[in-house]
Amino acid sequence: MTELSHDSTRRELATDEGVLRYHEAGEGPPLLLLHGSGPGVTGWRNFRDNLATFAPHFRCLVLEFPGFGVSDSTDGHPMATAGTAVERFLDGLGLDQVDVIGNSMGGIVGTRFALAHPDRVRRLVTIGGIGRNLYSPGPGEGINLLMEFTENPTREGLVRWLRSMVHDQSLVTEELIEERWAHATDPETLAGARRMYSREAFAASAAAAAASGEPPYWAMLHQLKAKTLLTWGRDDRVSAVDMSIVPMRTIPDGELHVFPNCGHWVMIEQKAAWESAVLAFLTRKDAS
């Protein structure tokens, strides 16, 4: 297999709303990987260390959402336009159906896409994020730290946010901090973050959702057709594990796997155990 480096896997897809950038590795059934949100996030940083496990079995496609400093930005709220980016991406590659892994925000995007296009998602894996708080306060600690950093982007604020992502604090290395800091403070990336994470933006999104009269996505999970694996860190300080109860109970063909000694970045912090569980789910012989 070709070395799975950033440059060797990097690809571009021209669309009618700008260039979508992504990483591709492996051959086989298509597996779409959708990144989460937060300062300095990219799909490559979320999933780069998982590709070696999945590429021997799947054609892995790591999409970079518009508005996060890699793919071309589009008008509108980056979270609101992420679903259309997925559709543009799959149409542009001529893919009718995929399996999806979504981290945090990417899990919400993947779930919404699967609800809207039930024939296009065969299997869905989420990493924290989806559902709603039942016992824990919302927004969670990590979200509040994210808003604080967005409104006052300091290196110390970034470190506080990064530390809320993981159970094992040794994972917050100087290399990680510098990598995230350089990207998060890029003017275009920071402007996009403020459209998403400022307290004003959060309040505006909540008001718009209430005014729309449409049910929230988590209230529609009983309509999800894709077999679904919910993966969660027991010690998640962004989306507390009680958020998993609604999707676990209402998704018709859903499973829940909770990993101990693990925060929000399950695919990083419990890499081997998470990869084993996800690979078994995606390749299970009873899959249809």
From TrEMBL:
Q: Does Electron transport count among this protein's keywords?
A: no
Cite the InterPro entries for this sequence: AB_hydrolase_1 (IPR000073), AB_hydrolase_fold (IPR029058), AB_hydrolase_sf (IPR050266), Epox_hydrolase-like (IPR000639)
Q: Which residues form a coiled coil?
A: none
Q: Name one Pfam family in it.
A: Abhydrolase_1
- Which GO terms label this protein's molecular function in UniProt? hydrolase activity
Residues annotated as domain AB hydrolase-1: 29-269
Q: Which UniProt keywords apply?
A: Hydrolase
Question: Could you confirm whether the keyword S-adenosyl-L-methionine appears in this record?
Answer: no
Entries under PANTHER family matching the protein: HYDROLASE, PUTATIVE (AFU_ORTHOLOGUE AFUA_2G14860)-RELATED (PTHR43798:SF33), MONOACYLGLYCEROL LIPASE (PTHR43798)
Task: State what protein this is by name.
Answer: Alpha/beta fold hydrolase
Q: Native species of this protein?
A: Streptomyces endophyticus
At the highest ranks, the source species' classification is: Bacteria, Bacillati, Actinomycetota, Actinomycetes, Kitasatosporales
